[in-house]
Design goal:
The complex is a heterodimer of chains A (442) and B (481). Helix content of chain A is 38%, strand content 15%. With 442 residues, chain A is of the alpha/beta class. Classes of the chains: A alpha/beta (442), B alpha/beta (481).
Amino acid sequence: MFTSNTEKEKQEMLDAVGVKSIKDLFKDIEPSLLAGKFDLPAAMTEAELSAHIKQLAAENKPLVNFAGAGIYEHFIPAAVNAISSRGEFLTAYTPYQAEASQGTLQAIYEYQSCICALFEMGVSNASHYDGATALAEACGAAVRIKGKNKILLSAALNPEYKKVLNTYFKASNVAVFEDCPLNNATVDLNCLKEKLSSGEYAAFVLANPNFYGCLEDAKSISKITHEAGALLIAQVYPVSLGILETPGSYDADFAVAEGQCLGNTMSFGGPGLGIFTCKKEYVRYTPGRICGISKDADGKRAFVLTLQAREQHIRRERAASNICSNQALCALNAAVYLTLMGPYGMREVAEANIENAHILKDKICSLKGYKLKFDKPFFNEFVVECPKPAAQIIKAAAKKGILAGYDLGRNDKTLKNCLLVCATEMRTKADLETFISVLRGI
Amino acid sequence: MNTYPHNLLSIEKSSLGRRGPQIRKAQKDASAYLPKEFLRRTPPNLPSLSEFDTVRHFTNLSRLNFCLDTHFYPLGSCTMKYNPKAYDVLSALDGFSALHPYTPQDYAQGTLSIIYGLRQQLKAITGLYDFTLQPAAGAHGEFTGALIAAAYHRSRKDFERKEIIIPDTAHGTNPATAVMAGCRVINIKSAPDGRVDIEELKKVLGPKTALVMLTIPNTAGLFEKNIKQIAKLAHEAGSLLYMDGANLNALIGMVKPANMGVDIMHINLHKTLATPHGGGGPGAGAVGVCEKLADFLPVPRVEFDGKKYKLSVKSKNTIGAVKSFYGNISVIIRAYCYLKQFDGQTLKEIAENAVLNANYVRVKLAKYFPAFFDEICMHECVLTIDKGMLPNAKTIDIAKMLLDMGFHAPTVYFPLIVPEAIMIEPTETENKQTLDKFISALISIFLEAGTNPEVLHQAPRKCPVKRIDEVMAAREPNLRW
């Protein structure tokens, strides 16, 4: 029995309430509404359920993974889960009663601090749903700040993110999006300058590394964007910032990211971790929870949710966003991960990614019929043009236990032979060799 | 005596050069592969700790929390009930967690079958035609529902329907959602009995109404007695009816929302079904719709052809995607587990216990903190302070005093229509012994408030910190190291 009142206790409680039966507690509900039948199968015991779910888990066949495209497989030290699975974190609510939630609150403050340090940005919120929805919130903020509803997007923005932006703003017409064309897979600076010169845009959205894995000339892009009076929103890859230039260093006004890569499993794409950061001056446009430091009645340092006048439970229809629950436990995972890795650990992880991906690139491009599609600096992901449609290669490689990458033909028919390939620090030399021999055999 | 140590930040425990877990290092450094101008100039200001330091640091932080595993947590509207531990283990199995979202569908049949299976279960408990599991939280589900309503009206060339009617008892997420969906909020005052005022509703319903958005039971813990009439009025005016399912645990196994005339609803899978709150997420906000709205649901969708589960993006009218990929899978698996482990009869017992527990607390405290709406409630009761008995007492002090007595505080100052509101949701998984202790604690606070209100104002004294200056936090924001 899931509920724990005994029949005797229930009777005592009913007597106290002054009703004869439980039915009397539902007297407000029309009898016709109570009559429905519930077509659910017979209940399972925990043992039966466990066997059933293990069976379903076994029907998934995770492959040796060379796919990225927004979700990345990185090493997660066991200590991350050991901490976040503690009941004290796992079964606490949003920290409304600050005095009884100092653990969660300090962890949020440390998360915000670690993210600001990694991104070199002024402010981070306590988390958003995922990278795409965090970007949507940043676009909404830019529109409010600038009082203009047009936003220019890098054409190399993740197509999943573009879909979400369209969904978020189509009905409300709050923001209208347009693509800025590319030149050999990175933002065409002349086009960018020309488009922004109209003065119609609130912001430019830069993806760096972009969806094709290429690194952008972010400093020039930032200069052009700001000279035109628009805001720069950067969508970045947190693990890469262990070594790559940061959105803060190129003066981004907002920087957002999918934070799954920091201590969270891929889990078929969710839960993710929406990282939302901005310059300090825009903190009041930030959606969702933010934790700050204050003092208690004895003058002792204490943590508390703050600047709540932005939020829906205070401001209702004038709130910065409707977000209530966020992805707190995923943010905790990220905070623990970044604390474990530290400044040098993050650098080493990033360097291991760069090296693995560059070795793999050379190996693949030495195969007959395969070549690097865009010759640009990249982090851990790159595009190869294959002798056959990428969809065929993915299908054939899967049979050999390999997830070969992402089929760029899904979004652009002109790239149907192009495969977006990723090698993180998780891939061993042996994995790379296996991948190459599988490709050779296709 | 406060036994909690002053807790340093991780960065304050840092010692340069101290290292955590090692990974296999690259042979060459980054400048061998990338031009220098792409590299960061200074390392990030992250803490340098050992793995052991980190574990001890966060473990000690965790001990500063109240949580459901250790404390009664009667937060109204939040449904802090026990969630079976088995689901935490099962939802984290490698087969689920190690799956990349672009894994070919043949290799992801387990997860796809759970997404499909939960959809069928949710249809069975609500009577609705179909569901999406993509939204990441309750408020995200509301947003999805509002977008579906807007898209439906647009598809009928009914472009004027941009108003969403919301009662003053609603959660703040409802009006914020309406604005995000490009609609205008029409607030209506509740009737003296805490329900929708039918006459007020009639005044604002019309050719501009897109949606009537109700929480059922509402945030006063009351069932909308006239729900069928409300649904009829909304539909006659050409509007759709939205049910915020945040409080569905009061009705699960008893009432199917579709039978009340609900066109769209969201279910907080984490609250009503089963995922621990995690200090604020992740949750999931599944959205269900009636048949005429099914084609507007987000994509991708999971279909079953009798042999295999497949992802499909085919849909003429879909609103698109509200987040990347398919939903918060670990939350979806737990909800699926819950509805496998409990049949219709057990779900009914769950609703019964939720409602019985709330009424028991309400009645036992009636002489001390009377219910604002003096009648049988559903899964939660909203109490208030009788200023005749306790002229100087404040809800905030009562809440903080409860912390000292080892209980998490109820939701306070909500709903907004109740002065000094104390909103108690005991939930279905607590038992009479726990409730009796909680009731005794509140009675002793009542007595103290009458004789010595200053003591209450100094609470909490036994928590890791005393009362926190929230004004200072907002005036001089310190949001990072």
